[in-house]
Design brief:
ATP binding, alpha/beta, about 1150 residues, nine-stranded mixed β-sheet, Rossmann fold, DNA helicase related protein, Helix Hairpins
C-alpha cells in the first residue's frame, strides 16, 4: 500500500472510531441547566405556564431547550459490541457509563425549532449498520451513506412545528398521511394534540407538568397550564400572559407553532424504526435540557451535541492524503514505527556533552519572553527551545516531541519559543525599506450583505509565523492564551517597560475582561487570544477588535430586554478604532527611526551573544588544551628523537662519502701513475709485446676499479644527500610541532584568561566540568543565560513588539481591512466559499497583529475551515498525552511545524469505544495495532519520532519492567514540596527523571508553618451501595477544611479532588464554602495546581480501586497538583493494597479520623 493510501486508511479508521464515540448526556441539573424527562402527555418546558417560567432570569438571558430523543445507556452499546465482536477483556472504566441519545435538536424559549440544530447520532446510525451485519461489507461505514442519512433526518425534522395540512379532518385523525412520510405523521401527531381537547389531557398534564426533577405545581395552576397548552392561541393582546406569553405559546413569524411533545415522540419512534435499534439499544425516553443563554444567542445553537466534531475535518484530510496532499507534519506523524531509525536516537541524560553544545549562545535565540532574569530556563528547557527553533524550523524534524512531567515548565518553555518567533519576524520587518513593501500582489475580496472585504496578502518573508496552541478542552485553551497576555504572563520587573511599549494593552485587558483591575493586574500586551468555540470567538472579536467591554455589552443586553435595542458602545481601545483613528488623524510613523531602535537592541544582543560564544569557544579550548598540549609535547619529543637519529645517519653518510672521495681520488692517482708507466714502442718490441699487454691488462683492472669506486661513491653521495634532506625535513617538522605547541599553549593561555573573566562576570552561568558531572546540578544550571544577556534578549522581544505595532500603525488602512476580514472569518460571518488564498491572507494578517491563538481540536476544522495543507506556520499541542490522535489530524495537516508537549505518565485520552470494536474496525480498515486509539495518544505517537529524548523505566501490565522512549524531557520540577515531588517521581518516572528545583522557603516566611504535615487521614466508614461516595470521608473533609481555615488558609488556596464523579458530587453537597471550581475530579485538575490539595479516594468495591490504580497516571496527576500540602482521605487499609497507592501509603504518615464511623 502506498504511503498516501496507508495514511488515509489510518485516518479513515480513526473516523470510524469517532462514529462510535458519542458524548454522554448529563442528567444532573445545575443552576443554569435544568433537565426534564418528557412524555407524550406532558407539558413541555417551553410553555410560559411551565414551572420553569417561574424561575427568575437575568434581563439579558432567555431559556433555550435542547431535546434529546431516544435516550439509551452506553451499556447497551457495549452489549451490542460484545454480541457482534466478542467480549472486551479490559476492565470497564466507570467514566464510560452514562447515557446518550438517538437524536437531538434545539428549540427557542418559545418552543420553535432553531434552524440547523437537528443532529442524528452517528453512534445510533452505525450501531444499526452493525446490527444489520454490515461490518462484513466494504461500505458498511461509507461516509456517503452517513451523509445521506444525516440529510434525510434534517429534512424530516424541518416539518416540526408546521401547521396542520389545510382541510385535514379532525377527530379520528383520518387523512393525515397526505405526504405518505414522516412529515405527515408529525403533522398528524400535532393535530392529534390539538383535537384531543382540554378535558382529555388536562388531568395527566396536571400530574406531570413539572417533570420529575422540578417537583410539582399541580391543581388549578397546572390545569390552566394544560388548557393553554392545547387550546388555540388567544388573539394578540388577549390572555393573562400578555404579548410575551402569546409569543411564547403561539406561532412564529413564519407561521410555525411551538413543537408539541407528540411530534417529538413520533420522530423518536420513526428514527428507532428506521435504524432498527429498538431492541438492541432500548431507547425509551426524551430528555429536555433547558439552559440559560444570552438574548443574542436565543436563535442560534451549538449543534452536533451527539457526534464527534471531527467528522468533516477527518474526511477532508483523508481525501487530501489520497491525493498525496498530506504535508510533511502529518506524514511524519503517521510514519510507521518500523520505518523509524531508532539507532540514531540521542539520550539527553547520557549525552551531556551534546546537550551543552546545543545550548551554546550561537544556538540560542536572540529573543526571550518577559520573564525574570533571575529565573532563566533550566538546561532541558533551553535545549528544547533551541532544538525546536533550529531542527524543526529547518525541516529536518517537522514534529518535535517534548516530554513535560508535572511542574517542569512546559508553558514557560513554549513562551520562549513564541518570543523567538516574534523577534525573527521583526528582523524581517526591519529589512523593509517602507512598511508598504510588506504587501505583495493584488487584493482579493468577498462580498456579503454587510459589505465587501478586501485583503492584501503579505509577502512570503513575513508568513510562516502563525502560531496556534491546540488543546483538548476550551478551558485549557483559554487558560494558556489568557496566561500569555495576562498579569501572570510578565515578570514584575518588566511591567514598566511593557507599559512604555504598550502593545495594545488596553484592548488586551478588555479581551480578558480585566480592564477595571488594578494596573498591575491588567494585561500587558495583546500577544494571544482564545478562540475555539463560537462564544470565545465572538468575545475575542467584540473585545479585542471592537473594544466592547463585557460590562457595556451586558448593559446593552439589559436595555434590549427592556425594549430599547442599541449597539453596545465601543471603548475606542479596540484595534478597529485605533487603526481607524491612525488612518484619519494619527501622526505619521517614522519607519527608519523605528527600525533603527529595534536594530540597536538587536546589535546589543548580538554583541553580548558574541562575547559569550567566545567564552563558550574558550571553554572548549580550555577543556581540550591539556590533552592537546600533552599530545603535542609527546609528538615534539618524538620529533627530537627523529632529528637526532636523522643527524646520526647524516653524519655516517658524510663520513662514508668522505672516505669514498678518498678512495676515488686514490684510484685516479693510481691510474694516472700507471698511465705514466705505459711501455714505449722499443720496450714493447723488445719484450715481444709482453710489456704492453701486461700494462694494458693492469690498466683495465684499474679502470674497472675506478668505475666501481665511482659508482659506489655516487651511491654514497646520493645516500648522504637523502639523509641530509631527511634531516632537514625532520628539523622542519620538529619546528612546526614546536610552533604548534607554542600556539596551543598561547591559545590555551588566552582561552584560560577569557574563561577566568567569564567566570568572574557570569559565575554560575558558565558551565563547569564539576557541575556537568552531577546530574542534578547540571539540570538546574542555565548555561550562558546570565542577567545581562537575559535582560537584553527580553528587551529585544519588547522592541520586536513595538516594531510590529509601528508597522500596524504605518499600514493602518490596509491592515484594518485585512483584520476586519479576519475577524469576519473568526465570527462566522464570512461566506463559506471564500477562496482559500484570500482567507489565508486574512489569517496571516491577524497573526501578525496577535501572534498566538488557541483552539480546541474539536473547533479546529470549523475555525480554520478555509485553510488547507501547511497554511499555518506553527502548531503547539499542549497536554498532548491527553489528546486523541484523531483530534490532532486536522491541525497537523494545516501546520508547517508541530511541537508536541505533554506527558504519557499523566492523564490519558478518554476513549469510549470498547477495545473489541476498535480491533474490529482496525482489521476492517487494514491498519496496524500501533494506531489503536485506546492504546496511544498524540504524545506517544510523537515520542516515537523524537531523535532527542530518553528511556523511561516503566512497568507493563504484568508488572514487569520495561523501557519506553520519550521525547526531549523537561527535568527540573519547581512546583511541589516533599513528599509530593518524591511520590510523583517514584511512581511515574523511575525516581530519576525529575530533579527537584524548588527553592526552600525559610520557616519564618512560610505561611503554612503551623499546618500539619502532608498525611493520610484514614477513614473506614461504610459506603452507600455501589456508590464510591463514603459519607464518613465527607465528614473528615469537612473537619479538615475547618482546621485549615482556623489556621489561616484562604479558601482559594484549597482544592478537593477525587477519581470519582460521585465522590465529587458528595463533597460539593457538603457546602464547604469553597469556590465552585475548587472541587472536581482529578481529570478536571490537570494543568492546574493549588497550595493545599485534599484527595478524597472513596470507592465501595475492589473494581473501582483496581481501575484507579491500573496505571500511575491518575495518582501522579493528583499528587502533583499539591504545591505545599497533600492530604489523602480514604481507607488506607484497602487502598495500600493497590500498586502505586502502596507507595503513597508508605510516604505519608497516617492519621485516624475522628469522623470515622
Amino acid at each position: 500500500m502506498a504511503k498516501g493510501e496507508a495514511d488515509a486508511a489510518i485516518v479513515r479508521f480513526w473516523w470510524a472510531v469517532e462514529m462510535f464515540s458519542p458524548p454522554k448526556i448529563e442528567d444532573e441539573p445545575s443552576w443554569d441547566n435544568k433537565v426534564f424527562r418528557l412524555s407524550p402527555g406532558e407539558v413541555p418546558p417551553w410553555h410560559p405556564m411551565h414551572p420553569l417560567a417561574r424561575l427568575k432570569l437575568e434581563r439579558d438571558k432567555v431559556w433555550q431547550h435542547t431535546v434529546f430523543g431516544g435516550i439509551f445507556a452506553l451499556e447497551r452499546l457495549r452489549d451490542v459490541v460484545v454480541a457482534v465482536f466478542g467480549n472486551d477483556a479490559k476492565y470497564r472504566d466507570a467514566r464510560l457509563d452514562g447515557s446518550t441519545a438517538v437524536f437531538s435538536l434545539t428549540l427557542t424559549q418559545s418552543g420553535h425549532l432553531i434552524e440547523d440544530s437537528q443532529v442524528l447520532s452517528s453512534c445510533a446510525w452505525a450501531t444499526g449498520r452493525v446490527l444489520a451485519r454490515r461490518p462484513w461489507r466494504g461500505s458498511w461505514l461509507d461516509k456517503t451513506a452517513w451523509a445521506t442519512a444525516r440529510a434525510e433526518f434534517e429534512e424530516l425534522t424541518r416539518h416540526l412545528g408546521e401547521p396542520p395540512v389545510p382541510g385535514m379532518p379532525g377527530g379520528s385523525g383520518a387523512g393525515r398521511g397526505d405526504d405518505g412520510g414522516l412529515g405527515g405523521r408529525l403533522r398528524g401527531a400535532a393535530a392529534d394534540a390539538a383535537e384531543a381537547g382540554v378535558n382529555a389531557v388536562a388531568a395527566p398534564l396536571a400530574t406531570s407538568v413539572a417533570g420529575p426533577l422540578l417537583g410539582g405545581a399541580v391543581g388549578k395552576a397546572a390545569g390552566t397550564f394544560a388548557k393553554k397548552m392545547v387550546e388555540p392561541d388567544a388573539p394578540n393582546g388577549g390572555g393573562d400572559g400578555g404579548d410575551r406569553e402569546n409569543q411564547s405559546a403561539g406561532g412564529s413569524s413564519d407561521g410555525r407553532r411551538p413543537v408539541h411533545p407528540r411530534e417529538l415522540f413520533a420522530l423518536f419512534e420513526e428514527q428507532v424504526s428506521q435504524l432498527r435499534i429498538g431492541k438492541a439499544l432500548d431507547p425509551a425516553e426524551i430528555w429536555v435540557a433547558s439552559k440559560r443563554v444570552h438574548v443574542r444567542s436565543a436563535d442560534t445553537a451549538d449543534s452536533d451535541f451527539l457526534n464527534s466534531f471531527l467528522f468533516d475535518d477527518l474526511e477532508r484530510v483523508q481525501d487530501a492524503l489520497l491525493a498525496k496532499d498530506g504535508g510533511k507534519v502529518l506524514g511524519e506523524f503517521l510514519r510507521p514505527t518500523a520505518h523509524i531509525d531508532m539507532r540514531s536516537r540521542v539520550d539527553v541524560r547520557t549525552s551531556s556533552g551534546h546537550v551543552l553544545a546545543e545550548v551554546a549562545p550561537k544556538h540560542t535565540p536572540v529573543g526571550r519572553w518577559v520573564g525574570g532574569a533571575d529565573r532563566p530556563l533550566a538546561l532541558s528547557q533551553q535545549f528544547a527551545v533551541n532544538q525546536i527553533l533550529s531542527a524543526t524550523r529547518a525541516g529536518s524534524i517537522p514534529v518535535y516531541a517534548v516530554n513535560g512531567p508535572p511542574g517542569t515548565g512546559k508553558t514557560t518553555m513554549l513562551r520562549d519559543v513564541i518570543a523567538a518567533l516574534v523577534v525573527e519576524r521583526a528582523i524581517r520587518l526591519s529589512k523593509l525599506k517602507r512598511p508598504a513593501d510588506a504587501f505583495g500582489g493584488p487584493a482579493s475580496s468577498w462580498s456579503t450583505e454587510v459589505g465587501t472585504r478586501k485583503v492584501r496578502p503579505l509577502i512570503p518573508e513575513l508568513t510562516g509565523f502563525e502560531m496556534v496552541v491546540a488543546c483538548t478542552s476550551n478551558g485549557a485553551a483559554k487558560n494558556i492564551t489568557h496566561e500569555f497576555p495576562g498579569p501572570e504572563g510578565i515578570d514584575a520587573s518588566w511591567r514598566e517597560a511593557a507599559r512604555e511599549i504598550d502593545y495594545f494593552a488596553t484592548a488586551a485587558s478588555i479581551a480578558l475582561e480585566i480592564e477595571d483591575a488594578e494596573p498591575d493586574r491588567r494585561a500587558w500586551a495583546a500577544v494571544a487570544g482564545a478562540l475555539g468555540k463560537m462564544e470565545l470567538r465572538r468575545n475575542f472579536s467584540e473585545r479585542l477588535w471592537w473594544g466592547v467591554t463585557a460590562k457595556e455589552e451586558a448593559a446593552a443586553k439589559r436595555d434590549a430586554a427592556d425594549g430599547y435595542k442599541r449597539r453596545p458602545d465601543r471603548s475606542g481601545a479596540g484595534l478597529a478604532d485605533l487603526l481607524t483613528e491612525q488612518t484619519r488623524n494619527g501622526t505619521p510613523i517614522d519607519w527608519p527611526a523605528a527600525v533603527k531602535r529595534f536594530t540597536n537592541a538587536l546589535v546589543k544582543v548580538e554583541a553580548l551573544e558574541a562575547a559569550r560564544q567566545a567564552a563558550a569557544d574558550a571553554a572548549e579550548i580550555v577543556a581540550k588544551s591539556a590533552a592537546q598540549t600533552t599530545a603535542l609535547e609527546q609528538t615534539l619529543a618524538e620529533a627530537d628523537t627523529a632529528v637526532a637519529l636523522a643527524a646520526e645517519k647524516a653524519d655516517t653518510a658524510a663520513t662514508l662519502l668522505r672516505r669514498g672521495e678518498e678512495v676515488l681520488a686514490q684510484g685516479q692517482v693510481a691510474r694516472a701513475e700507471h698511465a705514466r708507466r705505459q711501455p714505449n714502442l722499443w720496450t714493447s718490441l723488445s719484450t715481444r709485446g709482453k710489456a704492453g699487454r701486461e700494462w694494458y691488462q693492469k690498466d683495465q683492472q684499474l679502470a674497472t676499479l675506478q668505475e666501481r669506486t665511482s659508482a659506489l661513491y655516487e651511491q654514497t653521495r646520493q645516500e648522504a644527500l637523502a639523509t641530509s634532506e631527511h634531516l632537514e625535513r625532520t628539523r622542519r617538522r620538529r619546528t612546526e610541532i614546536a610552533d604548534r605547541l607554542a600556539a596551543t599553549e598561547s591559545r590555551a593561555y588566552e582561552a584560560k584568561r577569557i574563561w577566568d573573566q567569564a567566570l568572574a562576570n557570569w559565575k554560575d552561568h558558565v558551565p563547569s566540568p564539576a557541575v556537568f558531572a552531577d546530574d542534578a546540578l547540571r539540570e538546574k544550571s542555565a548555561p550562558w543565560n546570565d542577567r545581562d544577556i537575559a535582560d537584553a534578549r527580553t528587551r529585544l522581544f519588547l522592541e520586536a513588539l513595538l516594531l510590529h505595532k509601528q508597522f500596524l500603525l504605518a499600514t493602518s488602512e490596509t491592515m484594518r481591512r485585512n483584520l476586519q476580514a479576519a475577524f469576519d472569518i473568526i465570527g462566522g460571518s464570512a461566506p463559506s466559499d471564500v477562496k482559500g488564498e484570500t482567507a489565508k491572507a486574512a489569517w496571516q494578517s491577524l497573526f501578525l497583529a496577535v501572534p498566538v491563538v488557541s483552539t480546541t481540536f474539536a473547533s479546529t476544522g470549523r475555525l480554520f475551515s478555509h485553510l488547507g495543507r501547511e497554511d499555518l506556520g506553527w502548531l503547539f499541542i499542549d497536554e498532548a498525552g491527553q489528546a486523541t490522535p484523531a483530534g490532532a489530524v486536522g491541525a497537523m495537516w494545516r501546520a508547517q511545524h508541530a511541537v508536541i508537549v505533554g506527558d504519557p505518565r499523566q492523564l490519558e485520552p478518554v476513549i469510549t469505544v470498547p477495545h473489541s470494536l476498535q480491533q474490529a474496525l482496525r482489521e476492517h480498515f487494514d491498519v496496524g495495532e500501533e494506531w489503536l486509539p485506546g492504546q496511544v495518544s498524540v504524545q506517544t505517537l510523537a515520542d516515537r519520532l523524537a531523535p532527542y529524548g530518553t528511556y523511561l523505566d516503566v512497568d507493563d501490565q504484568d508488572g514487569q519492567g520495561d523501557q519506553v522512549w520519550v521525547g526531549a524531557p523537561l527535568r527540573v520540577h519547581r512546583r511541589c514540596d516533599a513528599p509530593m515531588f518524591d511520590i510523583s517521581n517514584d511512581i511515574a518516572y523511575g525516581g530519576t527523571l525529575m530533579v527537584n528545583g524548588k527553592k526552600p522557603i525559610e520557616p519564618d516566611e512560610d505561611p503554612y508553618r503551623d499546618l500539619r504535615a502532608s498525611s493520610w487521614i484514614h477513614v473506614a466508614g461504610p459506603s452507600n451501595g455501589d456508590s464510591p461516595w463514603i459519607p464518613a470521608e465527607g465528614r473528615a473533609v469537612r473537619a479538615l477544611i475547618a482546621e485549615l481555615r482556623r489556621n489561616g488558609v484562604r479558601r482559594d488556596r484549597i482544592r478537593v479532588i477525587s477519581p470519582f464523579r460521585k465522590v465529587v458530587r458528595g463533597v460539593a453537597e457538603l457546602s464547604l464554602g469553597l469556590p465552585r471550581e475548587a472541587v472536581g475530579t482529578i481529570h478536571t485538575m490537570q494543568g492546574k495546581e493549588a497550595d493545599i490539595v485534599i484527595l478524597v479516594l472513596g470507592s465501595s468495591n475492589g473494581g473501582q480501586r483496581v481501575w484507579a490504580a491500573e496505571k500511575p497516571n491518575l495518582l501522579n496527576v493528583a499528587v502533583s497538583r499539591a504545591k505545599r500540602r497533600l492530604y489523602v482521605v480514604g481507607n488506607r487499609d484497602l487502598w495500600k493494597q493497590q500498586q502505586y497507592f502502596n507507595q503513597l501509603a508508605t510516604r505519608l504518615p497516617v492519621v485516624r479520623s475522628e469522623a470515622d464511623g
